[in-house]
Design a protein that fits this description.
Elements: E1 15-17, E2 20-22, E3 45-47, E4 59-60, E5 63-65, H1 85-91, E6 103-109, H2 115-125, E7 138-142, H3 154-170, E8 175-181, H4 186-198, E9 203-206, E10 208-211, H5 216-224, E11 230-234, E12 243-244, E13 252-261, E14 269-273, E15 286-287, E16 306-307, E17 310-313, E18 320-324, E19 330-335, H6 337-351, H7 363-366, E20 371-372, E21 402-403
Parallel strand pairs: 6-8, 6-9, 7-8, 9-11, 11-13, 13-17
Antiparallel strand pairs: 1-2, 3-5, 4-10, 5-19, 10-12, 13-14, 15-16, 18-19, 20-21
Helix pairs in contact: 1-3, 2-3, 3-6, 4-5
Length: 411
């Protein structure tokens, strides 16, 4: 878990995670196909954002593959590795249309000067309609709603590319509002959330987190209590343990899975919790220390809020294709719950506008049978074990499951 002011550092040694070896090391070339449907093997990764240096700071939850050869080519002969839009639509039974005119807001820190041009390349590769400032589909603002953008940052730029690409992949007809906070502090990121809602966004994705502390209830009321708005937050990338703001009772906490093609069954895909019983890299989960338990959560292992609610692909070994050129080399494969949070925000957008006054985090609990239940995998060791081990029904790493269409994300 990345903690505010007391970051958890990755070990220099490899972390054995779900049969996969994760290691922070310089990039080495590998065949592009290695990123797709990865089997248990050496998978080298790097966290995009530096650990917080001060109390109240956040870190993004994006992880990039360093063992996949990056490139900038386009076209059928140079298709990027990693899952693309058609894969996500197939895996999660999503419609090919829908969400027209809906705005999904992306909340991140710092500036990505290449955000719009990189987005154009991603969408062109996959035959998606253009999403630009000129046609009204894409809009980038600072946390005050203007164009006084913060200083660029390579790590957060990669996070931004991941976020806008996942909205594009999941809901190609949605508009995208990118709100850039001037720093990674909770106060600045929270101000960006409020700005997005003020600008009319009904779906707000947050792919960052930090350690819980006693100020969280005040931040909940100040930044995340927005009835009628679906706010998603990634659960974290360091295995069992809880981050804020995923622990807020007003948000949909999004865990992570390993996603693979599967010949068995009608779905054609299989999923397990991202992580390992040994701990280390994996989706965050557990019991909040400060967040009150929402009325719709009925698990009895946490007196307070349980994390997470739902999930989507996050394992970088079975990761998604992303295009990023700000101090980067183009196509790469990314993972982390920074991938799953914007996917789920976009599924909410496909499902339709939340009812006024509702907390949309409650919707999946009323429609749990409309989700893909994830019953295998774990992200650590804990008691009670459902908080770190997948099982039938609700569990910590994957929540109630992953999207099977949009029915679970509407009233």
């Amino acid at each position: 878990m990345v903690r505010r002011g007391a970051p958890a550092l990755l070990s220099a040694a490899a972390l054995i995670t779900g049969g996969l070896v994760y290691k922070r090391q310089p990039s080495s070339a590998a065949p592009a196909s290695a990123a797709r449907d990865a089997t248990p093997a050496a998978v080298h990764t790097h966290r995009l954002c530096s650990e917080p240096k001060h109390a109240g700071d956040m870190a993004c939850n994006a992880v990039e593959r360093t063992d996949v050869k990056q490139h900038r080519a386009l076209g059928a002969d140079a298709a990027p590795s990693g899952f693309g839009p058609s894969d996500l639509r197939s895996a999660y039974n999503l419609p090919t249309s829908g969400g027209s005119g809906q705005t999904v807001a992306i909340i991140d820190a710092q500036d990505d000067p290449k955000a719009e041009s990189d987005l154009a390349t991603y969408r062109k590769q996959y035959g998606l309609p253009a999403c630009t400032t000129a046609n009204g589909c894409f809009k980038k603002v600072d946390q005050n709603g203007g164009k006084n953008y913060p200083a660029p940052d390579a790590g957060w730029a990669g996070e931004i590319s991941l976020d806008v690409d996942m909205v594009s992949a999941t809901c190609p007809s949605c508009h995208i509002l990118l709100v850039e906070a001037k720093s990674a502090s909770m106060d600045d990121l929270g101000a960006a959330v409020n700005r997005a809602v003020k600008m009319g966004a009904k779906y707000v994705s947050n792919s960052y987190g930090g350690g819980e502390d006693s100020t969280d209830p005040a931040s909940d009321a100040k930044y995340f209590k927005h009835p009628g708005v679906a706010i998603t937050v990634s659960s974290g990338d360091s295995g069992y343990g809880v981050e804020y703001p995923a622990s807020s009772p007003y948000v949909t906490a999004v865990g992570g899975t390993s996603l693979q093609h599967s010949g068995g069954g009608s779905r054609g895909w299989s999923e397990s919790a991202w992580g390992s019983s040994f701990g280390g890299q994996g989706a965050g989960s557990g019991c909040s220390k400060y967040g009150n338990k929402p009325s719709w959560q009925k698990d009895d292992g946490c007196a307070k809020r349980s994390v997470s609610d739902v999930s989507a692909v996050a394992d970088p070994a079975t990761g998604v294709a992303v295009y990023n050129t700000y101090q980067a080399s183009g196509w790469n494969v990314f993972g982390g719950t920074s991938a799953s949070a914007p996917i789920i925000a976009s599924v909410y957008a496909l499902a339709g506008t939340p009812a006024s006054g509702d907390t949309p985090a409650a919707y999946p609990y009323a429609h749990a049978t409309s989700l893909n239940d994830v019953t295998t995998g774990s992200n650590g060791s804990c008691t009670p074990d459902y908080l770190c081990k997948s099982r039938k029904g609700y569990d910590g790493p994957t929540g109630l499951g992953t999207p099977n269409g949009t029915a679970a994300f509407k009233k």
